[in-house]
Every structure is written in C-alpha cells, then in structure tokens.
Design brief:
single chain, 189 residues, five-stranded mixed sheet, three-stranded mixed sheet, 3 helices, elongated
Amino acid sequence: MTGARRAGLLCCFALCGCVVQADHFYTLNTVPEAARVAPAPAIHVRLQVTIPSLMDRNEMVLQTSRNGIVILDHERWAAPLTDQVNQTLARDIEARRIDVLVGDRGFDRAASPPVTLKVDLVRMSAQRGGRASIEAHWRIVDSSAGVDELGSDSFEAALTHDGYAAVAEAYSETLSALAERLAERVRRR
C-alpha cells in the first residue's frame, strides 16, 4: 500500500469518526395551557419537589425492561428536569386554582402564612411506544388551618406517538393529573 493511499484511508476513517448525531431538546408544559385571569391570589403555596436521582440528569432516560434502562445521549431536557417538574407543577396548580400563587419565600406575608407543599416523585418511568408514569408522595402543611396531610398516588399517560417528544408530552400529562389532585387538597381560605 502506498503512502498516499494509506493517508487517504486514514483521512476517510478520521472523517467517519467525526460524524456527530445532533442533540434534540425537550421541555415539559402545563396541560392544558391557559392564561391566568384572576384577582390577587389569597393563598401562597411554597412548593418543594424532588425527583429520583436516576432521572435527575440532562439526558432522557427510558425504561427498556423491568430492570433495564437506556440513557439517550442525544435526547436531552432543555433545562434541569427538577426545575422543569417544579415549574410545570406550579403552573398546573395555579391554572386550576385562581386563588393560589405558587412561589418562594419572597411572596410570604405575615398576615397569611404560606401553605407548604412537599412533593417527592419516588418513581418516574417511560417506555417508548408505551406509557409514562409517576408515583408521587406529598405532604401539605397549612399552619393557619391546622392541616398536616400526607398523600400518595400514581399517574399514567400514554405516549401518543413514536417520537421522543411524546415522552415529554406524557410526563406533562402525568404532572397535570398530579396537579389536579394537589389543587383539590389545598384548603380554601
């Protein structure tokens, strides 16, 4: 093999190794999307959300079997998943209760202590061509009403098409169902 031919083959192999798959990014959204038109909220909710550490990564994770997962290097969340879950759940709760504002300590008022809502998503899973599901445990503490309530439930949504955006859509649906349940549990003042 001549030197020129060898160099040409090496260049070919090097170029083949440089082919890079494009990254795709996904977000969670409130379901249904609705503009908030309301008087000043009467109830301030301080929301704290945790998600499983396995899911708390930039890459999308899918379940392949009971004990198997695949981490998709090029299918990524557009922002940290914990932040997206927190914001989506907050906006979903607000969409269902016009008297509620979900925010941090900066919205606290001395006359009306906030309701603390802690949500622990103990399981999040999605299977391509199947369903997305979450299992949530929550605690609602409303000191002004003397409420300290625990709850838990599971929520599922079908992946409606074959693309990875369907995973984000299905997780958005499960969070919407969770928000519906939580909005019912926060007592009116």
